[in-house]
Amino acid sequence: MRRLRKKKLRQILKEVRLSKDNLIVPIFVDENLKEPYEIPSMPSYFRYPIDGVVDEVERCMEIGLKAFILFGLPSYKDEKGSSAYDRDGVIQKALRAVSKEFDDAILITDVCLCEYTSHGHCGVVEGMEILNDPTLELIAETALSHAEAGADIVAPSGMMDGMVKAIREKLDGNGFQDIPIMSYSAKYASSFYSPFREAADSGFAFGDRKSYQMDIHNSDEAMREIELDIMEGADIVMVKPALAYLDIIRRAKDTFNIPLAAYNVSGEYAMVKSAEKLGWLDGKAIAYEILTAIKRAGADLIITYHAKEIADLI
Ligand code: PBG
């Protein structure tokens, strides 16, 4: 076996390879900021004011990263998450600002209510319950407002049943037949999201997300979720988180013939960065290894907070 491991030969024999084309950079846009703000639990990761997002996109484009997923921190929150579908909301403004400057930047939007609701849940709340069907119209309206403002792809992440179908119908009915949907199809109720909740100020006032996000013990169920999303019209499906769910990524890749994304989430990033800070491991090398593993498991696209720091390695 060692014959093919000679330094000179290794390069032509790599079975998978990371590419900047497959990485998606998450960007947090905060309407309430004047200056970038470093997120405490995500070292070297920032929230940006709207004009700062344009600069950040420019810095990424310069190093060859061209796809972005935008998360918003609005100036107001209410029970129904009105700022999510406000035509003058934070994401809508950011989309207009970025698409004006950069034609070729690929702008994906996270479509969810949790950053915009006063209770922090991903749907309409009644008592202690998160209602499914009344939420669909609000999610669809949010997706439409993103498409109108210049989104290239919309990515619903709220794990409401029927969300892909509701969005597809809304987009098609309003002249946006050509906007693809990347669905967070198999999104687990994971403890790996806690730094994100600080980053996006989307913690919840009561309970947990287990009545809508998936049980971590399940794999068959993830295949049902993905299958339903494909039937409802998803163009790209997603598994989230990534690192502890490589089995799900591989199974999805083997089961379905559709572009597959994986989300290397905030807690995965925070683990690497905190150990790096302590000098316990080489953060960049670990990030490269983790992302290669996600790719090897079968992901076509990877959403990752590490994109900028490893861009020069690939
Ligand atoms: C919104 C959303 C979350 C993440 C992406 N979209 C948070 C959640 O579901 O609680 C998490 C991303 C990350 O941890 O990096 N629903």
From TrEMBL:
EC class (word): lyase
Pfam families: ALAD
Taxonomy, superkingdom: Archaea
Catalytic activities: 2 5-aminolevulinate = porphobilinogen + 2 H2O + H(+)
Binding residues for 5-aminolevulinate 2: S266, Y305
Associated pathway: Porphyrin-containing compound metabolism; protoporphyrin-IX biosynthesis; coproporphyrinogen-III from 5-aminolevulinate: step 1/4
CDD domains reported for this sequence: ALAD_PBGS (cd00384)
Chain sites annotated for binding Mg(2+): E225
Gene Ontology biological process terms from the UniProt entry: protoporphyrinogen IX biosynthetic process
Residue sites binding Zn(2+) per the record: C112, C114, C122
Subunit structure comment from the entry: Homooctamer.
Binding site for 5-aminolevulinate 1: R197, R209
Enzyme Commission identifier(s): 4.2.1.24
GO molecular function: porphobilinogen synthase activity; zinc ion binding
The protein, known as: Delta-aminolevulinic acid dehydratase
Alphabetic keyword roster: Heme biosynthesis, Lyase, Magnesium, Metal-binding, Porphyrin biosynthesis, Zinc
Active site: K187 (schiff-base intermediate with substrate), K240 (schiff-base intermediate with substrate)
